[in-house]
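Quick note —
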Amino acid sequence: MPNEGKCILAGTGPGDIGLVTLRTKEVVEHADVVVYDYLCNREILSWARPGAEIIYAGKQAGAHTLSQQEINDLILQRAREGKLVVRLKGGDPFVFGRGAEEAEALAAAGIPFEIVPGISSAVAVPAYAGIPVTHRDVTSSFTVFTGHEAPLKKESAIDYRALVQGHGTLVMLMGAARLSKIVAELRAHGASPSMPVAVIRWGTTGLQETLVGTLENIEEIAAEVEPPVVVVFGDVVSYRQRLRWFENRPLFGRKIVVTRTRQQAGELSTRLRSLGAEVLELPTIKIIPPENLMEFGELVRDSFQYDWLVFTSPNGVGAFFELFFKLYNDARALGNVRIAAIGPGTAARVRDFHFAVDLQPEEAVAERLADTFQQNESVENLKFLLVRAENARDVLPKRLTQLGAIVDEAIAYRTIPERDDPTGARKRFEEEGADLITFTSSSTVENFMAMKLPWPKWLKTASIGPITSATMRKAGLKVDIEAKKHDIDGLVEAVVRLVGG
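Predicted structure written out below.
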């Protein structure tokens, strides 16, 4: 009998990637096959392991990639092949989606399955618009209903009279095209024309738009709105004026491109999203081991013999200590070596491994690091192990050698162009553009330019430091702003200064 796989039906929340559950992230990381919907945040796909099969099964009005039966057949087929299938559903799988139908198909076929609940847009989207679905001074209940019932139904299963007489908040999902009909039904069954209404489009994302009116005028106010929308009916809508918070953040409505490696993008992306930006992760480089890994390993093994261990990037720190602790199980094996770091980001990475930094320049560039060594003490005849990337600038080893130091270079990693694009970020950039692009190293600049993507005339740039800025200018790019502190904190501050509201 063939090995039976498993299917996990997982909710991805309402759009903000920060609202995806840890369990959903975990199952995506282990999936053999990921089948995702239109409303899923595509950045989730970057968590999938290399080689995982990624299948789009999105449904938009009038444009279904696959029918529901085809989706059912697909997940059954892949599971029968012995694969772990993760079916990603926007919001929660069982809230006005068709997760229950997919679960029924799996159960009927005898295939093991699991349900991972997700945060429903019914509560999350109003919250991001500053609207509490309940409030003890206004209402103690809320009802969620769909504006898009099964098309084959002869009559609606929604009891509009009961909705109105319940005196609670009403939250409608999937009803943009039928807003006029829903409003008419509510009014016909006794709802007051002055009832407050909010129509929220692309809630919890950087594209969020909120239109507020009453049952009497909301059709006119929201006449041009397109899905996806969540509509809230009730007195709780009046609290938005005092409780709106999401749209008040300094980078709200700004689309910002992050060009760091897929592994490193998280910190910068999280910071920008927390300030309201819509982040487009478009990695331009990938970190891979050095060509001569044995030579690097020998230098790591003998690192205790040096006077100074010098790190010029967080990547170098990670590569060094990950290998160090494979060779030694005791941090004291490093001996009395002193540690220097080029900047605060690199220093922070050193501290991640519970080592202290003995020397760090005020400005995170190789020239300042060399000056700081010279000002600190004589380096003549001292032995330095410089941990760096292949083809990095030779300023620091040359300066140290000129000062009389004995310098060995440990090539810890290489950067190569990133070719994979599991989230479709390149296509989105080509079609939609962005407000600003961030560059965190010379290699991100060079590899972005090598992609030959269109450059929107309104696109602004932010550089992490002078070396990156010099590379940008050499490539013909204008540097709109450069970070005063050459680290992620400094870059985020620069972005807010340039495009913050």
